[in-house]
Amino acid sequence: MRYNEKYYFVLSLLELIEKMNREVDVVIVEGINDKKVLRELGFKKEILTVGTRKRPNGKFTILTDFDEEGKKIAKRLCKKYGEKHLIKVYRKKFNELLSRYGIKEIEGIRSIVREVLNLF
After folding, report:
1. Domains of the chain
2. For residue 119, what pLDDT is reported?
């Protein structure tokens, strides 16, 4: 990926995170590294990891990885917590953006984010 592609990729991620900060109360991710990436991108609300006993309170989205295992986990979480307060659009938008660059894991964007943000 060329630098200008990385820049627009990170810019798109930052825009998504900004919208999520306004519209989502909780994000559920697979692990601690995914949580760290979202914090580095500026997500300010609550982030739960898979397996936590705490239930999402309010509007939530699921950002598990986009590989087969991550998809299974996302489906399981949808059933577990229901869809009444689930905002699906962010999972879809993250998937579209990451798949453009062949990325299937949330933590897979970390090195690109750091490279671009460290230049500023």
Report:
1. 3-117 (3.40.1360.10)
2. 64
